[in-house]
Model the fold of this input.
Amino acid sequence: MDTQRQKFEREYRVGKLLEKGGFGTIFWGLRIQDELSVAIKHVPKEKINHWITYEGERVPMEVCALRKVSKIPGCITILDHFVCNDCVIIVMEKPDPVMDLFDYIDEQRTLNETLAREFFIQILETSLQCYTAGIIHRDIKDENILVNLKSHSLKLIDFRTATFLKDDMYYEFSGTRICAPPEWIRLGCYHGKRANVWCLGVLLYVMLCGEWPFKKDEEIICAGLDLCPRLTNECRDLLKKCLSVHPAERPTIEDILKHPWITEQKEPPTGDAPVCRPCIMCKRSAELK
Done:
């Protein structure tokens, strides 16, 4: 008898499908007690590679990570979890109205520097708070960030690849290959915080330029940035520092928060600013000169 599943079915009602992928399935749902809207994630046990004992219970690392970051405003909040016979069910808050940053950028085409800065600072601060909680996300990208359409506040989601933060090297890569740092591609190891700064640099580039800075392993290893001319010098400098091929040359998050591009306060742009879509035209123009 699956007592955990029975307990879940007594407490929650499953609604429409929201997302389905290799990781599992996410449904909209209701908590029966107060009719609170929730997101319900079903993960088959065979898809879970990392289990850990947390507060006396054997749970996936994802559940442990979510519990540890649960008080961080910039992280999605876990409400409940159930370890069933065939799967693990994770119940989380369902903010509304939200859109993931991937779709948000696609709709906007690119973000101006003012808005990109606002978003980037939030993710930097959330990353630092995760460090304090002893967790590193390892897959910060636009698809794993929710944008509140009213307040512009962000929520970091999908902690499948998260693990405990440590000072030693990591020898397994968990995340999106296109966001992998060059040291992992070349050497098969990386330092967590320095790799995270690389990932944050990729995110900033995507927000500003609407495309990935690198698409192949060879491009990642070389880290040759083709930056759009419309970006300010301070912005270009920060991107180059975060996406340095040498890990030791990348700034810490604390350093990034002190960078001139982050600390400068500019008035929001008025009118419709010209938009590069998505830096490809700049590249083509340069090639024709």
The domain at 98-288 is CATH 1.10.510.10 (Transferase(Phosphotransferase); domain 1). The chain is about 35% helix and 25% strand. The first helix runs from residue 3 to 11.
